[in-house]
Amino acid sequence: MKYSDNKLQQQTAKNTLQPVFSAVFVVTLFLIVTSYIYFYPELDNSIFFNGVLTDAINLLIVVAIFIIVQRANLSVFAYVNLSIGLLLWSAGLTFDLLDEVLIQPLFIGIYVEDVLRTAGMLFTCYGLKLTIGDLTSVQQQLSKELITDYLTQIANRQFFYQYMQKNQSAPYTILLIDIDFFKVINDQFGHDRGDQVLIELSSLYAKALPNNSVFARLGGEEFAIYLPGDDRPKACDLSEQLLSLAHTIELAANRTVSVSIGVSFKAPGEAFNEVVKRADQALYKAKNSGRSQYYIA
């Protein structure tokens, strides 16, 4: 997955905030313990080991989560909310632990502990919500990248073949398209111009194709189109349109892009790889017959 400038900025901001939150966390807990011992040093007459152990374990768990958050790759907003939440939660648990061994003023037990713990939980829950949202966005982006051609932003070969395998029962039409003399375009005009031709052609075709079609780049200068149904006149009209659209891309004075197209229709009981093979053979004949034309298998 490519990092955008925004993500890099967020990572930089998080790296700046991390030592601040870590220092505040340690100093806060230290001040709570030292202040508590200084002002309320009297031991509780009834110390219960189970209560002390439980509160200590709870505090250690939240501290461990805080450490994990500091090391995690999170968005700045999620990181800040989680860090604040876990800091407040830890402070509340620290007061709770001290209450097990020292005599605590009533207002701390009634207000301070509960307020800090509740506020910490709320911030932490909101931070978790943001984190889950970020993870969902990343998952969606990764899923899209797996089926999208990185250069042209249309479907890639993997998605095209998977789609065809799942749609074998109904009749369909396959068009294989190859840019004529693409190597010559790269050699004479440079690979940047070659890439731009691929992008422009993909954009033109994507806008011209019906909504129920699937358009993909198979690799290099080769594209494929899946059309539901086996309407021959419709396939011929579309092929003519695609040939014309290619000519709208200018390379130089009096020189435009051209493509060759091979067309095949699914026969009853025919496997998809055989349909593609016949379209590829038709494409080969179109190229050998002078290019800039379509041929039907």
UniProtKB/TrEMBL annotation:
The keyword Transmembrane helix applies. Residues 170-297 form the GGDEF domain. Keywords: Membrane, Transmembrane, Transmembrane helix. The chain crosses the membrane at residues 20-41, 47-69, 76-95. Its EC number is 2.7.7.65. It catalyses: 2 GTP = 3',3'-c-di-GMP + 2 diphosphate. It comes from the Bacteria. It holds the Pfam family GGDEF. It is an enzyme of class 2 (transferase). This is diguanylate cyclase. It comes from Pseudoalteromonas rhizosphaerae.
